[in-house]
Amino acid sequence: MQNLGAGYHPGVYETLGPLARGGMAELFFARATSGPHVGVPLVVKRLLPHLADAEDIGSLFAHEVALAMRLEHPCIVRVLDRGEVDGVPFLVMPWLDGLDVRELEARLTAARERLPVGVACAIGARIAAALDYAHSLADEHGRPLGVVHRDVSPHNVMLTRGGDVKVLDFGIAKTRLTATRTGLVRGKAAYMAPEQLAGFDVDGRADLFSLGVVVWELLTGLRLFQMATETGTARAVREAPTTPPSAFAPEARGQLDALVGAMLSKFPSARPRSAGLVAAALDAEALKRGVADPRRAIAAVVTAHAPRST
Q1: CA torsion angle 213 127 72 45 (round to 10)
Q2: Under CATH, domain 2-94 is a member of which superfamily?
Q3: What CA–CA distance (Å, rounded) separates 77 from 213?
Q4: Strands (E), 81-191
C-alpha cells in the first residue's frame, strides 16, 4: 500500500487500489490509519505526479481543491481533507457506494429497461439543486463567485444505494476569480452548451444546457448529440434541432417536454432563469408521476442495478 502522508487534518492515508485515471488526476480507494476519518471508506484524488511541475495543470488542480473545500451541499460530494506528498497535491473524499449516471444508463440499456420518468426527473432535480447552490456561492464579502461547473455530464453524477445524488468534479469550474481565457474550451463536447463550444465566456446558463442533455438522456435512454467524431458532435450541439424527449418517452409530453426544450435552447437568454427554478419544476414533474419520496425511488433503482460493494 502506498503511504500518501499527512493531510490537512492529522492522519495518514494509504491507498488500497486504483479506481480510475484521467488526463489530470488519478483516483484510489483508500483508508485513514489515524485521524478523524478512520473507519470511513475513502477516495483519494491525486494529481498525476508527472504533472506536478506543470504550472497550468497544478494551478487548475489547486483551484479545484480550493473551490471544493467551500462546497457544502447534500447533492455535491464533500471534500474531507487535502494535502501534498513529495510536491504532489491530493484531496480526500468519501467513498460513494453506488454508480454514476453513465453506468446506470449502460446497465439499463443492457437489461432493455428504461428509467421511470419520475425517477429521471427526481435525479435531474437534485443535480439542478446542486448547481443552483454552486451558482449562488459568494465570497466572504457577499460578492458572487460566479461559479460555473462546465462539465455537467453523466460521468460526473453519482447515485448511491441510499438514494443520494452527488455532483462530482469541479476540476474545470470557472469562477469570477479564475475565469478561463476566452477561446479555451474545456469539457465534453456532447454535453457542452453551444457558447461554451465556441470558446465564449459562460455563466450558469451553460450548465443548464448541459443538464438539459443529461435529463433528455435519462428520460429517453438514448444519446442526444453523440456522433462518430468530436467535430460532428460539436456541430450537432451547435446546429442540430432537438427532438422532444416525448418522441421516445411519451410520458414526458407536456410541461416536461417544454422544460427540457427550454434548457436545450441554443440561445442562453431563452433558457430558464436559474437552476433553482429547474429543480423546483423537475421535482413537481416527479411528484406528478408518483415519486413522493425521491430518495427512496432513486435508491430502489440503484440497488436493482448496482452490485453490492465488498
Answers
A1: -50
A2: Phosphorylase Kinase; domain 1 (3.30.200.20)
A3: 21
A4: 81-85, 88-94, 98-100, 157-160, 165-167
**Band (297; pLDDT cuts 50, 70, 90):** very high
267: its cell numbers: 440561445
Angstrom distance (rounded) from CA 169 to CA 257: 29
Single out the catalytic residue among 81, 100, 132, 151.
151
Q: Hey, which CATH number is domain 98-305, 3.90.650.10, 1.10.510.10, 3.40.30.10, 3.20.20.120?
A: 1.10.510.10
In this prediction, residues 96-118 reach a mean pLDDT of 95
Whether residue 261 has pLDDT greater than 60: yes
Whether the per-residue pLDDT at 104 is higher than 90: the answer is yes
Task: Find the Cα–Cα–Cα–Cα dihedral 231, 236, 237, 242, rounded to 10°.
Answer: -170
Residue 151 appears among annotated catalytic residues: yes
Contact by Cβ (8 Å): 33, 12: yes
Alpha carbons 70 and 159: distance in angstroms, whole number: 22
pTM: 0.89
